[in-house]
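Supplementary Text 2. Reproducibility record for the structural model of the 665-residue chain.

All settings were left at their defaults, and a single model was retained for analysis rather than an ensemble. We include the record here because the model underlies the residue-level annotations in Supplementary Table 4.
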Amino acid sequence: MAPTDKNNQNFIVNLFRKSTPILTFERLLLSYFNVAPKGLRSWLKAMPLWLGQKLHIPKIIRKEIGYKGNVLFTEHHEAHAASAFFPSPFSEAAILTIDGVGEWATASYGYGTGSEINLLKELHFPNSVGLLYSAFTYFTGFRVNSGEYKMMGLSPYGEPIYKDLILNELIDLKSDGSIRLNLKYFDFLGGLKMTNRHFAELFGGPPREPESEISKREIDMAASIQKVTEEIVLRMARHLYHETHQKYLCMAGGVALNCVANGRLLREGPFDDIWIQPAAGDAGGALGAAFAVWHRYLGHQRNHYNARNAQRSAFLGPSYSKDYIEGFLNRNDYPYHPLSAETRSCNIAEKIAEGKIVGYFAGRMEYGPRALGARSILGDPRNDDTQAVMNQKIKYRESFRPFAPTVLEEKAKDFFKLDRASPYMLLVAKVQAKRCLPQSKNPELNLSERLRFRRSDIPAVTHLDYSARIQTVNQNDKPDYYVLIREFEKLTGYAVLVNTSFNVRGEPIVCSPEDAYRCFMRTEMDALILEDYMLNKDEQPPITKVNIDTINSSPVEMREIYRFGLIALLFFSILASLAIWREKWVLVVIFGSMTTTGFGFMLLPKTLQPLYRKWLKIAHIIGEVINTVILTIVYYIVITPTSYLKHLFGGRPLPVQPVLISGIN
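Retained model, structure tokens:
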């Protein structure tokens, strides 16, 4: 809603102009006050980035893009809330955001109406559901901020035997879902790790080493924290429902990507329907900030919420024309087969039905972490070997990781216990009982042995607990993908495909045809679809490595090289002049030669590039040494004494912040 009076308008303007990096920096400083003299390594790692870049975001933006206007900020969870509500199909709805941490907030709730958002309460750092989940991600040997999916996928293999231990020792969980962490067990305030020795003692040993064998302890820990997280989300949602009396719920934040919790919330929660931002993590904050400025700062009305899917799709990234792709293939002499419009989908479906693994590149790239049929790797869900082959030979990842099914929207009920569309792969539902097969209950079987059992007639997408993370597709959202699945159904009787993101472990989803071809050749995919062109692996030439040194310098780097050459030229010219004045003829020859060489470098700047890059490395090392010395002095002369004084006089290093419920003081 547009501002109705001058005071309200001034409030909105000031709201968007305040610098949220300052709030985050404040949290960091107070965290170090809390842990000093410990935390030096974390301090030395964080401060150069903050002092050099993050505190100067407006200046950097203006410099990099030549912008001269206002730089507006939204708070982190305000951006999450805007990304959840404004693109949703609801005219009014409750809003719940949960993640690791923003400035101070780690969760928030409120409601949206028309073009307005009202956030009512927040949970504040260090009490965080996202950080709690990430602590277990770290301890079970996965990478924080990317391994949470792995732990969620691992959880069905275990038993939640540590659930009570978590609730009794690690957190104080209230009836409304707010939590208080027992910081005795965590090290994220000022350390470089998520947990400490007390956490390890509580769970019977040190953290699992990455890439080592996964034991029953890690499996049961994953199951336990997953159940706790589901309980927290359910309590938050129920409390929010009673506070707002809204029929619908919108969600965002990293925890909203926990599709197992989302599925349970949909089944057991109080809301009639839920809409989750497909880019629910921090990437979605860009969309949310844009929406917040558009509606709240500029006052534009929201009039699209009656649409079935107001965001229309997640296909908001770049696309590449047939001419571009054909030119790329021809320039590199890569063999390919054009596909006609009449037979394209049928030809691809036949490949998949034969058991082939196909890389599928078509249309605009997806926005968010899920591949939804634009940058996907596809396989046959009926094949017992598809999961193992795709995990081990395509994705190069852990064998237990499940794959998601894409199913025609109108056929979803035939395969899954799902009564609504799930276009963004954010809901988990059970496979229909008629398709399931009994499993062995032998507790002595290890992880790899349990994976071998056929659980349903679509085993490649049926997880151990007979669940699946489902994407439904209709003809309007992704016509080419819809027709492909329909053709596969004609051939096999199954309106389902295995769908995983087009990338290998540790890399982002491919964006360009060049990315797709490189990934295709590095893995054991059988075929690659680039729009209307099919490439077969056995017809391709051997792949060669690209020499990074042959890549041209950017215009920015060339300017810096010229500047470096000019400074070096002036420096050696001055030294040569001083040598002549002092009649030091040996130095005259040396510095004169360097000056002459400098003129040559200025005429041929690319010859200066290797020297420039070596100087950058040396300068970087010198800068790091100086920064380390200065920051260490500041930490022990300023931060540590202040911390001791606060503790001595009973001060609270972390201030009491507004919380999600009134029961925590």
